[in-house]
Structures are given as structure tokens and as C-alpha cells.
Design a protein that fits this description.
This protein is of the alpha/beta class. The chain has eleven helices and ten strands. It has helices at residues 7-13, 67-74, 97-107, 123-133, 138-151, 167-179, 197-214, 225-228, 254-257, 266-269, 273-277; strands at 25-36, 39-51, 56-60, 82-87, 90-91, 108-112, 185-189, 217-221, 233-238, 241-247. The radius of gyration is 21 Å and the shape is globular. 37% of the residues are buried.
């Protein structure tokens, strides 16, 4: 058996000298204030928390609660105004831009609400992009991208452009792109925000699988309580402070929920004949 560990396994096995597991994410009294000329806007106010390898955490809160600022800091896209952020035991609060970019490239996978795919680039080429920035040898890039697409069930769509894919398929490509550099942490910002109910559950099934089967640490931002039910732990923010931190009760398993949902288009097939007849005069939306 190979002794080589994946990034997630290395993170999971990291321990301190005292034998305690090192948190994948640790915030110590983090503040973030945005300076808007004469006005200072506090976004985070003394947030402290730990997230360990293999956790699946939902971050919730109303607009302006600080959850998006938190995700920017966790993703090394922004720095705390005060306080410290440790990623896998390393204090990243004061790293240079180049050091933060390297850290993002190798340790963190990002999934966004808007997918952020290049429209004139195939699914495979979209997934390959992070490997270019990470300096992966050219002969390895396509292999990694193909494997990532396979993991999200889109191997047969590798040559399709985003315009040829449904919203759910585009989000799967975005997830594959987040996985291609084998990160230990996946950050997903409203990953189901633009998707219908069934497709949202399909995306949560993928994220749950990555968490359960591959040991990835997953943190999602969502304003939907039903989506948060697929996580293991929920953090609730209000006015820049962490107000609630609790394990999810009656957690939903996407693999069990999906069979109870109608297939896409099934409701249209169930339309009454009288409603179907309206299509001749243009009063019924197209299927």
C-alpha cells in the first residue's frame, strides 16, 4: 500500500505535539472593518471558531450578517482587520499576496452561485484552469480534469460548452473545477442559489459524497434553511457576530431525499389536457 497521503488525509491526521488534532480552520477574535472614506463599516466583530477536517458546515445569516466576509477570509481572498486566521495550523493572516495565492491554489476549492465558467471554453478546459495556475505539468492537466468530471458524473460531457449544459450540469463542472487540485477544503457560496429544488438536492448529494467518501472539509454559505439541513453543523451570523453554533438536528441525506422528488419535467407531463390545449394560442409557457 502506498504511504502517500492526499491533502485531506494529511489534514485529517495533523496533530499537535500534545496529540490533539489540529483544526483545519481556526479563527481567533477576528474583526473585519471596511473603510469607506469617512465611514467605517464593521463586517465581523470578534469571531472565534474552529472547524476540523471532515466536517460539513453551513454558514447562515441575513444579508449584511457577515457570512460573505467570513467566507472571503476563510478563502484567503481577504484579510482580517484584527485577529488571526490559521489554516491547517498555519497563521495565514499576514501572508503576502503571492503566498495567499499559492495557498488558495493548493488547499482550497471554490464553488460559486454564478458558476463562473468561461463561455467559449469546454467543460474539460474550464476544469483544467486551476491546474495551469498551480503549475501542474501539461501532460497531467487533462488527466486530472477528466477524473474530476468523472467524480461529479459528467465525464461524457467533457467536450460540451456551458451553453450546452443545464444549470445543474454547469454547477457540477464548477465543483469539478474546485476539486481538480485535490484541495483539503471546499468553500461553496450559495451553491444552489440559481437551481431548482431537485437540482439543488442533486448538488447537495455530490457535496455530501465528497465529504463522506473522500473526507473533504466542506463549508457552504446558504440563506436556505432546507439546504443547511444537509450539513452536519450550522453557524448562524447576525450583525457580524457568531450567534449560534450547533450540530444539525434531523440531518437530511440527499441520497434519500432524491427518490421522493419528481423528475424534472414530470409536473409538466401531469398538466391537465385543458391546460395543454392553451398552447395553440400561446397562453401556456413552452416546456
Amino acid at each position: 500500500m502506498s504511504s502517500r497521503l492526499t491533502a485531506s488525509e494529511s489534514s485529517l491526521n495533523a496533530v499537535t505535539a500534545s496529540g490533539q488534532q489540529i483544526a483545519t480552520i481556526r479563527l481567533e477574535n477576528v474583526y473585519k472593518t471596511y473603510d469607506l472614506g469617512e465611514i467605517q463599516v464593521p463586517a465581523l466583530r470578534g469571531v472565534s471558531l474552529e472547524i476540523f477536517a471532515g466536517e460539513f458546515v453551513a454558514v447562515m445569516g441575513a444579508s449584511g450578517s457577515g457570512k460573505s466576509t467570513l467566507m472571503n477570509i476563510l478563502g484567503c481572498l481577504d484579510r482580517p482587520t484584527k485577529g488571526r486566521y490559521f489554516l491547517d495550523g498555519r497563521d495565514v493572516s499576514s501572508l503576502s499576496k503571492d503566498e495567499l495565492a499559492a495557498l488558495r491554489s493548493h488547499k482550497i476549492g471554490f464553488v460559486f452561485q454564478q458558476f463562473n465558467l468561461l463561455p467559449r471554453t469546454s467543460a474539460l478546459e474550464n476544469v483544467e484552469l486551476p491546474t495551469i495556475y498551480a503549475g501542474v505539468p501539461i501532460e497531467e492537466r487533462a488527466k486530472r480534469a477528466e477524473e474530476a468530471l468523472r467524480r461529479v458524473g459528467l465525464a461524457e460531457r467533457a467536450g460540451h460548452f456551458p451553453s450546452q449544459l443545464s444549470g445543474g450540469q454547469q454547477q457540477r463542472v464548477a465543483i469539478a473545477r474546485a476539486l481538480v487540485n485535490n484541495p483539503s477544503l471546499v468553500l461553496a457560496d450559495e451553491p444552489t442559489g440559481n437551481l431548482d429544488s431537485r437540482t439543488s438536492v442533486e448538488i447537495m448529494e455530490i457535496l455530501q459524497g465528497l465529504n463522506e467518501q473522500h473526507g473533504l472539509t466542506v463549508v457552504i454559505v446558504t440563506h436556505e434553511p432546507d439546504i443547511a439541513q444537509y450539513a452536519k453543523r450550522a453557524l448562524e451570523f447576525r450583525d457580524g457576530k457568531l450567534r449560534k453554533d450547533a450540530m444539525v438536528q434531523n440531518r437530511q441525506l440527499a441520497s434519500e431525499v432524491l427518490p421522493t422528488l419528481p423528475a424534472i419535467g414530470a409536473e409538466d407531463e401531469a398538466d391537465a389536457p385543458g391546460d395543454r390545449a392553451k398552447s395553440s394560442n400561446g397562453n401556456t409557457p413552452a416546456d
